[in-house]
Structures are given as C-alpha cells and as structure tokens.
Amino acid sequence: LRHGGSPAAVGIGAAVRPAEKASLEKAIDIKRRAQRCFQNGDLDGALSEYEKLTRAEDSEPINLVVMADLLYKKEDLAEASRCYLQAVDAYTGAGLYKNAIAVCKKMARLSLSPAIVLQRLAELHVLDGLSTEAALYYQEYAEHQAHEQHFRAAADTLRKAMGISPETPQLLQKAAAWLVQAGDATAASAL
Predict the structure, then answer these.
(1) Could you tell me where the DSSP H helices lie in 60-150?
(2) pTM of the entire structure?
(3) Which of 73, 100, 122, 184 is the Cys-Cys partner for 91 at CB 3.0 to 4.6 Å?
(4) pLDDT tens-digit profile of 128-161?
C-alpha cells in the first residue's frame, strides 16, 4: 500500500468486492516479493515481479515507472526508456498530465530519449493548458532537430511553438533560416 497502512486504514475493506480485494492482496504480495528481491540485490527477481504487475488489467502506471527504474539500474537503457514512455502514455490516457510530465522530466534527467522527451513535454504542456511552457519545449525540440540537421522538421516544430505563443517573432526568422538550410527558399520566404 502506498501509505503504509492496512487496507482498512486507507478506506479499503468491506466496501471492496471480494474479487477486487483478492486482486489488491495479490498486487501487495507481488510488491512485497519484489521489494525483498530488490533488498537482496536481485534486480532480475524484482523486475520479474513487476512484470507480473504490469500485465494485470488494472495495473497502475507507477508500476511501469518502477519497472523502468529497475531496468535503468540494470543499465538496460532502451527497455527503461520504453517502459517510462509506456508510463507516460498510461498517465496521459488517464488525463494525469502532471504525472506524465514528471516521468518525462525524470527521463530528461537520466538522458533517456532526449528528442522524444522534448516532443512529449511540449505536447503534454499543451494538454495541461500551459502554453508558455509548451512553446519553450517546442523550441528546445526544434533546436535538437536542427542540431541533428533535420531542418525542415525543426522549422515545422517552431511553427507549432509560434501557434501556441505568437508573441515571439524571432522564431519565424529562425524557422526561415532552417528552411533555407533545408533547401526550401520558397517556403522560407512565405514565412
């Protein structure tokens, strides 16, 4: 349990149907086994237990985050990134944008999938109604794309930033310059 209390202490008990209670007890048991594995240095065992949790129909996105944390500790960065992004998708699907943003920021701190993370942070801030932050993340994402010499994509991303935050005309100049670098002077002059 998240709060360390008994099921009754957190409002679970008689009001929970027997099937739900059994599922909850099974999840708690799996988490305890995973914790024991982790404490004994058995990352593979802990990971195996969390994989069981994530396969459950009613699995919470935090289980994917913990699984990703374990994969990161094992230095399986590709799988860790995949699990973190699954958690982002799950939180987004549930409308928990701030949780999804927090997972993306964690990925950024861990230097996992920087381009995808910047793009997702921009999109999530739009969904959360934070246009200034969204525009800033779109700008960072565009800079990343330009650094990778994807100039047309970078210009398109800056257009998104401009659509969200039109008070920054210098972005148009930068987008035009990137379009010229992409070999599209006609599109650059249309900006």
Answers:
(1) 61-73, 77-93, 97-109, 114-127, 131-147
(2) 0.79
(3) 100
(4) 999 999 999 999 999 999 999 999 999 999 989 9
